[in-house]
Amino acid sequence: MSKTNSLEVHSTLAETPARRYLLCMRAVVSKWLIGWMVACAGCSSSEADSTNNYANSSDGSFVDSSSDSADASPAVDAAVDATGDTSVDTVPDTAQDHAASDSPSEDSLLDTTVDAEQDTPPDAPPWIVGNQATCPELAPLRDTSTDASSILQMCIDRTPDGMTLVLDPGRYSLAAQLHLDREIGLSTTGRIGTASCSTEPTHGCAELFALPAFDTRLGMFLATGAVTIDHIVLHGNRQGRSGTHAHQMCSALTDNAYGYNATLQCSNCRMTHSVSMYALCGTGLQVIAPAVNVTISHNTFAFNGLHTTKNMWSDGLTVHDSEKGVYEHNTFIDNTDIDLIFGGCKKCKIRYNQVHHTSDPAGGAFAAIMIQKWPTTSGCYEDVDISGNAVDCGPLRACGSAFYIGSESWYPETPYGTLQNGTTSGLIKGNSVNRAMNAFYIAARGLAIYGNDFLQAHGVPIPNSCHKNIVSTTPIVVSPTAASCHFNFENVDPGMSIHYSSASWAGCVPNYPF
Q1: How far is 405 from 447, CA to CA, in rounded Å?
Q2: Is residue 392 within 8 Å of residue 355, measured between CB atoms?
Q3: DSSP-based three-state secondary structure for 146
Q4: Does the bond joining 121 to the residue before it have cis omega, within 30 degrees of 0?
Q5: Can you tell me whether residue 346 is helix, strand or coil?
Q6: How far apart are CA 113 and CA 130, in angstroms?
Q7: Are 304 and 316 in contact (CB under 8 A)?
Q8: Residue closest to 414 by CA, chosen among 383, 465, 438, 380
Q9: Looking at the predicted structure, is the pLDDT value of residue 117 above 90?
Q10: CB 178 within 8 Å of CB 222
Q11: What are 217-226's pLDDT values in tens digits?
């Protein structure tokens, strides 16, 4: 959650003769594509934002001592196999039980089948195969440490609008940022419509790999167009970038945007079936305004940052103000700041995500899922649906809070569903928590929060930035600053009220290891 103040970012490539040539090529390709599609028609039926430094060394006050009698709610306790080399413990399977039909269909950019002989027009350039663009010039650079960014950018630029560029499986090393500013797709050859990429070395997807020389803010790609990223692996190479300028910018908390893996600054854009792992610091993926109708689904965010090295922690997915976004069916493993964090998400669906932490102390987090407000974001969650998410913080109970609904441990801001007293808008229901220091910390207003399950989610000391004796005496802790939140009478029901207590964690960051 430690974010830097970002500039409003709009990428412009130099207008060189080569660039003009590529633009002309794009126009030519688009012309024959239109003609081809018309000929085939008879056979067919058919806002700028900024990011913020997350003040991870706040001070303030906490309260309370432990009790053993509060965790009476049932929690789902099925085993989930994590990807990657690190062993993952059991997590609730609430998110995993939902069929793929619950999530949106794949983008039309990717909903195609390639038949090179039948679909490729006779006058197409050689790098268009079937109805997809390719990049054969990358072949000598695949699985090498040679910078592939300039050639890959050339292939991106010549891909016609509405077409998907497919890359052969393998690693492509980058020393410079890629810019995607149009409605195109980026995927792996032969992987569209298959199982999601994994964190295993044998993932079989195209992998973008940050070289030690990579030294650009906001990550390996910056997307400002309505792009679709599908079956792509982002590897931030945090193990190999120690001592670099980017590492210094992270460790001094000067500008942690140098540690990001990627940024989406777009509307109607998507990232699906992909992986973002081993970010140096900051975040595995940042989503910033305009961020309307963004879809992030069926991805894995894993091993980003280090929780036990000061300022080198990283979120998995960081979403600033978004509207009508879909953030669901994602898996989060050992992200080390906040696994999944929002600064505002009006009319969004945040559903069926799984968060789990392993037995690695460096893989802990301050919180697993955080619904909050940065000083420069709206904090609005009107009509949000936060349901079916499952959090298991592992054998170390390595999340300070499974669901942190507020901001006040970091700064005095309040997220809300509605600001009208006595009413609510937005629902947090049907989520499950297992093995956390605290299930829910609530410092918000105008949200309905009830019907959530928890197991082993209270009663242990919580290390914190205030260095106070803090224990979540019940699974649900409601701050005195919370207002107009609706708990469906659980907080007064004789059988359920034992799960609720009141305390202030203002100024005290939970699970702070220093």
Answers
A1: 10
A2: yes
A3: coil
A4: no
A5: strand
A6: 8
A7: yes
A8: 380
A9: no
A10: yes
A11: 999 999 999 9
| Closest residue by Cα to residue 348 from 287, 400, 407, 392 | 287
Residues 6+ apart with CB under 8 A from 203: 197, 233, 275
Rounded CA-CA distance 383/447 in Å is 9
Task: Specify the pTM.
Answer: 0.82
Amino acid letter for position 297: S
Measure the N-to-C terminal CA separation of the chain; round to a whole number of Å.
17
Which pair of structure tokens corresponds to residue 321? 């103000």
Tokens of 323: 């509207």
Burial 365-384 (b: 16+ CB within 10 A, else e): bbbbbbbbbbebbbbbbbbb
If you search the block for the tokens 């965790």, which residue do you land on? 71
Q: Which residue has the tokens 């600053």?
A: 481
Locate 381 and state its tokens: 């969650």
Tell me how far apart the alpha carbons of residues 242 and 202 are, in angstroms, rounded to a whole number. Answer: 25
Q: pLDDT tens-digit profile of 61-71?
A: 222 333 333 44
Instruction: Give CA torsion, residues 223, 281, 327, 54, to 10 deg.
Output: -110
Instruction: Give the burial class of 77: count Cβ atoms within 10 A of its Cβ; 0-12 exposed, 13-18 middle, 19 or more buried.
Output: middle
